[in-house]
Design brief:
The structure holds 2 protein chains of 2 kinds. By secondary structure, chain A is mainly alpha-helical. Chain A is 77% helix and 0% strand. Chain B has one domain: ABC transporter involved in vitamin B12 uptake, BtuC (Orthogonal Bundle), CATH 1.10.3470. In chain B, helix 12 packs across helix 14. The chains are: A mainly alpha, B mainly alpha.
Chain lengths: 332, 350
């Protein structure tokens, strides 16, 4: 049954990703027929407006695929290695760390290149991760889901007030920050996506290779040790992978929450608890969801555009609440 | 290590409550003096400096050109709002932290303050609201969010072993994150000037303090603090755990809901007047606990007042001609201080 479900999920995921990509290229302020989209891809003609429009949407679609894959897989890795059903780059403070570092960079060093954003985002996400785990592990019961979530929220609140204080002093930073902070796909070109994509790929490869380790960690530290998994080293490696994935995603699109929470749970519902199946499904479902959210955001309130970060929150909050309510003892 | 410490603690135990009470009284006295001192300093120091005798005469009703307005209409109400806001935040934070058994569980972390902010931001962005309208939107946002969290978390039903508390915290964090996304969205839909105003509000400041606002806060505290005083004795019983409290005849869900609503009202009302002033609710309780050796509501209240007064004074006077809102100071100093506090409380083994 799980094997059949997995095949079905993979095929369905591929199909969803294809449809979402096609919609992402054709839908918007100026809609383009699917056949013209196809023409523009195989036989580009710069004199046709429709072709130019489609190509301008290519970077957005590419960014959506990259960000969706990175955040969904990062979420799965975090949930597995912390045995925490509520783990998500947004909830656990990685996004806040990365985005605060980027805003600091914008404010003090006027950074604007995606590579600069990335360096700051990596640093910020790394510091955020270490802080949240350090804070949550204090006390007797170690890092329970509630303590992790609280530590993440506290770090998010703290960094948020720091960022607010900074941009208050500088109108230009405020203007740049408020359009980036919301989480949007439209701000970068294809070269940027490729640059960031390299780092995401490293993070993705590490996580995919480590899926058997994730399965072992999910059984508990003692069981994992019994299975011959070097627990500490595995956590550090997976932690680095999530920092790479989240930092790169934040550098590309700003902080996007709830995606890393929702997608792995949806995958788990379909293919069961084996991370060797969950991660590939996330790899397809994450980008599909981001692109779908982005397309809906483009058409839901014309002429304005609802950014993808807002759309994922709209889907994510109810899922988060259902997860909390259906688990009798989230405290573990 | 704990084996060596435990017998000593047992021996000291009989005298401990009395010693704590004495220490609490001493800390309370010191903080009261500090609050009064800071108030005096806040009224006299600044640009322009005001002589004490002139300030007293102005407060007693004499019209002194250039002095009366600054002292009576600006600095004095600011100081009073600072004290009231600090007291409210300190009490509200301590209720949440004590009830939810976690120093991180303050209203600014679990979504309540974000709700008030979302209300205010929507009012400013789409209704050009200010003053009283803004106040009502913020209050409604804060209370509405809290009620929503309570209902979704199922706090009105009874649960066991802290499950309800955990659910409340987690639902609050989720709702808070969603509301943050909403605020971010609204921030992209407005012009630069409004965005700047909204940002100012979201940082929190005392610069718009007037006697009207003093009146609002005073009346609210006069209602809410007695309510809280009644509920706090029940909070102590609730601390024993839901089962034990129920067997002692406590109506656990009602008590919990009442405590949350009073604590939320305290912080939502204050946020509506001053803006969020981050970390005040967060820091007051743990600082009071460090000073006294056990949680103390009166000490936390005065600790909050001290923090807000000090932050406002620093923002007004420490940066030359630039005046920074109090929320910038509490935010900038609060974040590192929080980390220090956390490492400290972990090494002392709490």
């Amino acid at each position: 049954m799980p094997r059949g479900a997995t095949v079905l999920a993979i095929v369905g995921g591929l199909l969803a990703l294809t449809v979402a990509s096609a919609l992402s290229l054709s839908v918007g302020a100026r809609s383009v027929a699917p056949s013209v989209v196809w023409d523009s891809l195989v036989a580009y003609d710069g004199s046709l407006t429709d072709h130019v429009v489609v190509h301008s949407r290519l970077q957005r679609t590419a960014a959506g695929i990259a960000v969706g894959a990175a955040l969904a897989v990062a979420g799965a890795a975090m949930q597995g290695m912390t045995r925490n059903p509520l783990a998500d780059p947004g909830i656990l403070g990685l996004n806040a760390g990365a985005s605060a570092a980027v805003v600091l960079g914008v404010y003090f060093l006027s950074i604007s290149q995606v590579t600069q954003f990335m360096v700051f985002a990596f640093l910020g996400a790394g510091v955020g991760t270490v802080l949240v785990y350090a804070i949550a592990s204090m006390g007797r019961d170690g890092a329970t889901p509630v303590k992790l979530a609280l530590a993440g929220a506290a770090i998010t609140a703290g960094l948020g007030s720091l960022v607010n204080a900074l941009v208050l002093l500088d109108q230009a930073s405020l203007d740049r920050m408020r359009f980036w902070q919301v989480g949007t796909l439209g701000a970068r070109d294809l070269g940027d996506v490729a640059t960031v994509g390299v780092f995401m790929l490293v993070g993705l490869v590490i996580t995919v290779i480590a899926t058997p380790t994730l399965n072992a960690l999910a059984l508990g530290d003692d069981a994992a040790v019994g299975l011959g998994v070097p627990v500490r080293r595995a956590r550090v490696g997976l932690g680095l992978a999530t920092v790479l994935l989240c930092g790169a995603a934040v550098a590309l699109a700003g902080p996007i929450g709830f995606l890393g929470l929702v997608v792995p749970h949806a995958a788990r519902l379909i293919v069961g608890g084996d991370y060797r199946r969950i991660v590939p499904v996330c790899l397809l479902a994450g980008p599909s969801l981001v692109l779908a959210a982005d397309v809906i955001g483009r058409v839901i309130a014309p002429p304005a555009e609802v950014q993808v970060g807002v759309m994922t929150a709209l889907v994510g909050v109810p899922v988060f609440i259902v997860l909390i309510r259906t688990r009798k003892q989230v405290g573990l | 290590m704990s084996a060596a410490v435990a017998p000593a603690a047992d021996v000291a135990a009989p005298g401990t409550p009395r010693r704590h009470a004495a220490r609490a009284r001493a800390v309370l006295l010191i903080l009261a003096v500090v609050v009064i001192g800071l108030t005096v300093v806040r009224v006299l120091v600044g640009s322009p400096m005001v002589y004490a005798d002139l300030a007293v005469r102005a407060i007693l009703g004499e019209q002194i050109p250039g002095i009366s307005f600054i002292v009576v209409q600006n600095r004095l109400p600011t100081a009073v709002v600072a004290i009231l806001a600090g007291v409210a935040f300190g009490l509200s934070g301590t209720v949440f932290q004590t009830m939810l058994r976690n120093p991180l569980a303050s209203p600014d972390v679990i979504g309540v303050t974000v709700g008030a902010s979302a209300g205010a931001v929507i009012a400013m962005a789409f209704f050009q609201a200010s003053g009283t309208t803004l106040f009502w939107f913020a209050l409604l946002g804060g209370m509405g969010t809290a009620v929503l969290i309570l209902l979704v978390a199922g706090a009105q039903r009874s649960g066991s072993g802290g499950a309800v508390d955990n659910r409340f915290v987690l639902v609050g964090i989720g709702v808070g994150a969603g509301l943050s996304a909403l605020i971010s969205y609204v921030m992209t839909r407005i012009d630069t000037r409004t965005a700047s105003d909204v940002m100012h509000w979201m940082v929190g400041s005392l610069s718009t303090s007037t006697w009207d606002r003093v009146l609002v806060l005073t009346l609210s505290l006069l209602v809410l603090i007695p309510l809280l005083a009644v509920l706090v004795t029940r909070l102590r019983i609730l601390q024993l755990g839901d089962e034990a409290a129920t067997s002692l005849g406590l109506r656990v869900p009602a008590t919990r809901t009442g405590l949350i609503l009073v604590a939320v009202a305290l912080s939502a009302l204050t946020v509506a007047v001053t803006g969020p002033l981050s970390f005040v609710a967060f820091l007051s309780g743990p600082l009071a606990r460090m000073a006294v050796g056990r949680p103390s509501f009166p000490v936390a209240a005065l600790m909050g007042a001290t923090i807000v007064l000090a932050a406002d004074f620093i923002g007004q006077n420490a940066f030359g001609s630039v005046e920074l809102p109090a929320g910038v100071i509490t935010g900038a100093l609060g974040a590192p201080f929080l980390l220090w506090l956390l490492t400290r409380s972990s090494t002392s083994g709490s």
